[in-house]
Amino acid sequence: MAEKSKKSSAVLHIATPFIVAAIAFGGLMAAVVKPSDKLKVYLNIAFMDELKTDPENASSGLIIRDNQIKEEHSGETSDTGEVIRPKFGEMYAVIKCSSLSLDVPVYWGSDVELFERGACQSSGSVLAGENGNSVISAHEDTYFAELSKLKVGDTVTINTNYGYFTYKVKECVTFTKDNNKYVVSTKDNRLTMYTCKKDVLGRSDERIGVICELIEKKFYVGAEGGGAE
Question: What is the CATH topology of the domain spanning 46-220?
């Protein structure tokens, strides 16, 4: 009986460190779940360019809405107002830059089909007119083919059906696809545009982009949402 008790005690002694480690690991996982949830909407931004060439990532049942975006407005505007939240797959804006003759539709969300139609804004970033970082990506060989030609001081405008917003290029950047430094949430109001760096040997892991600061926002007074439901 004593021998059996000794064996049980020995087993418990051996198992105790593993039990303690399992409890500690569980506590650690619980601690990191919340920060992980907070960051996950931004982590996909740095990788969303993978959607451009991988048909397996295409959304099933995607509904694309090509809205008519108001690009000229003669009515009253205000420095403050409400944004109109689009649905995934909906064209909600047009991005323009006169120095590049850039005039590109912007779709809400990232998907293979949407990248074929224009630029895509990650649904993990803020809409034009909201406080924070609006992150927009497009193909390097089509819609953002001349993005690298933008210079500090150039202006970029985003037109929507609830207002138009003007940005000035503040910084030209390069980064790797797994670096989310420029695409996370920010306290300042900015526009981040990026695309893949061209590589004749195949897909590049480098990205080129521009960081633009918001210099003017004009909301349409009495806007009813245009094409949004």
Answer: Sortase; Chain: A; (2.40.260)
Q: How many angstroms separate the CA atoms of 176 and 57, rounded?
A: 21
Q: What is the pTM of this model?
A: 0.73
Confidence bin at 16 (pLDDT 50/70/90) = low
List pLDDT tens digits, range 74-106: 889 999 999 999 999 999 999 999 888 899 999
- Condensed to tens digits (0 to 9), the pLDDT of residues 55-72 reads 434 455 789 999 999 888
Question: How far apart, in Å, are the Cα atoms of 92 and each of 23, 74, 163?
Answer: 48, 20, 11
Please provide the DSSP assignment of the chain as one string.
-HHHHHHHHHHHHHHHHHHHHHHHHHHHHHHHHHHHHHHHHHHHHHHGGGGGT-GGGPPTT---B---------S-EESS----PPPTTBEEEEEEETTTTEEEEEEES--HHHHHHSEEE-TTSPPTTSSSEEEEE--TTTTTTTGGG--TT-EEEEEESSEEEEEEEEEEEEEETT--TTTS--SS-EEEEEEEPP-TTS--SEEEEEEEEEEEEEEETT---TT--
In whole angstroms, what is the distance from residue 108 CA to residue 128 CA?
11
Q: Which residue has the tokens 């690298």?
A: 148
The domain ranges of the chain are 46-220
CA–CA distance, 150 with 209 (Å, rounded to integer): 9
Q: Specify the residue for token string 């918001």.
A: 214
- The residue among 183, 207, 80, 178 whose CA lies nearest residue 133 is 183
